[in-house]
Amino acid sequence: MGEKVGFVTMGEVKGERGEIPKIGVGMLGYAFMGKAHTNAYKKYPYIFWPPAAIPRLVAICGRNEKAVEEARIRYGYEKAYRDWQEMLNDPKVQIFDNSGPNSLHCEPSVAALNMGKHVFCEKPLAGTVEEARAMWEAAQKSSAKSMVCFNYRFLPALRLARDFIAEGKLGEIYHFRAQYLQEWIMDPNFPMVWRLDKDVAGSGALGDLGSHIIDLARFLVGDIATVSALTRTFIKERPSLEDPTRKVPVTVDDAFVAVVEFSCGAIGTLEASRFCAGRKNHQVIEINGSRGSIRFNLERLNELEVHLVGEEPKVFQGFHQVMVTESYHPFYEHWWPHGHIIGWEHTFIHAISHFLDAVVNNKEIAPYGATFEDGYRCAVICDTIVRSSLSGKKEELRY
Questions:
Q1: Most exposed of 63, 129, 257, 342 (fewest Cβ within 10 Å)?
Q2: Half-sphere exposure (CA, 13 Å, Cβ side) for 36?
Q3: Within 13 Å of residue 25, how many CA atoms lie on the same side as its CB?
Q4: Is the pLDDT of residue 16 over 60?
């Protein structure tokens, strides 16, 4: 196994900086996000060479014995567990990757932090604001690192956009507007999956899609001060997964819209829906300031539209498209020659790289990575959007 240094085991691979440590990963969940995170752990070491550490896929956990064993073989984990507590008790698990349903974010993550294990948790941080606060408090008390996987923070184009704003290239920020639109549950015969059950998901489009654009609003512009919002559930009953002839109530929102005020004085709109015909994964963000504007479209994620006041020849007035693929652009030193684009999966590789660097080299997660405090603040904003929808009034943020 090699010599243990801190919480990692020194491996046999050497990079330019000497021996590269290995670090054991225990994964909760084997579906969509389990696949995305595992892919990132496997690709990270040879893309970000030399890596901060080489992830060792120690264990994967899920409730279905056949499915989790199949995932273990498919993804290359050493062991499979059906109980997350048993997996956390495995001394070889040093990083707990929580890719389970939202209802399983709080208890296992808090347990892992209390054991001194590092936690990489999918978004939203928790199903409720109370659980999110408990996770943040546990993170504050723990010596271990913790990070929320808001992966869009790690897109080269959005990191460049943040740099633009931080450097004052857009001047005073006036507007932030964001949409995140999909279509996948429009069919009224689509079954009652866990994402439509409040007890498991916490919320619908608000937590699933809205949390992304809320986090990006905070990441790019700053904290939100007030919210005025509406939520809507368009299809109130769906066929049960167990018995398709029986209808069960949908207990989450299908869509929300919100008008927000930022602490810096900017105003904005946020919208998310899973009922937009023709929209597959349509996330569009536009930011307007006194000296320019930027616009980003997730389905064209290697591009950033930019207009800077007074810095272009008149013939080129208006937005122009920047291909964010040069070697000096964020993250691109690790990838391909300019113009050779990357995709959605690479956001997770960048996020895992940031997290492992923080773990091994005792660096801060903030400001580029989302801390558990960021996850908690996002949960408070989601909760305030629901409160505003119920009250019909503008609501102030109360952390």
A1: 63
A2: 20
A3: 31
A4: no
Structure tokens belonging to residue 44: 């990270």
* 3-state SS, residue 367: coil
Task: Give the integer Cα–Cα distance in Å for 342 and 43.
Answer: 13
- Choose among 166, 215, 147: nearest CA to 354: 147
List the helix and strand counts (H, then E) for the chain: 11, 19
Which pLDDT tens digit goes with each residue over 34-84?
Answer: 999 999 999 999 999 999 999 999 999 999 999 999 999 999 999 999 999
DSSP for 344-361 reads TTHHHHHHHHHHHHHHHH
Whose tokens are 């109360």? That residue is: 398
- pLDDT tens, residue by residue, 332-353: 999 999 999 999 999 999 999 9
Would you list the domain boundaries of the chain? Answer: 4-151, 153-396
- pLDDT surpassing 60 at residue 85: yes
Q: Which two tokens stand for residue 142?
A: 């723990």
This prediction has a pTM of 0.94
- The H or E element that residue 132 is part of is helix 129-141
Whether 226 contacts 398, CB under 8 Å: no
- Cα radius of gyration rounded to whole Å, the chain: 21
How many CB atoms within 10 Å of residue 322?
16
Architecture in CATH of 4-151: 3-Layer(aba) Sandwich (3.40)
List all residues 6 or more positions away from 207 whose beta carbon is below 8 Å from its beta carbon.
102, 124, 127, 201, 382
122: helix, coil or strand?
strand
Nearest CA to 304 out of 280, 331, 285, 327 is that of 285
**CA atoms of 162 and 152, how far apart (whole Å):** 12
CA dihedral 118→123→128→130, nearest 10 degrees, is 30
- 248 phi and psi angles, rounded to 5 deg: -125, 150
Q: What is the DSSP letter of 206?
A: I
Q: Which numeric CATH code is attached to 153-396?
A: 3.30.360.10
Residues 50, 17 contacting (CB under 8 angstroms): yes
CA distance 317 to 356: 43
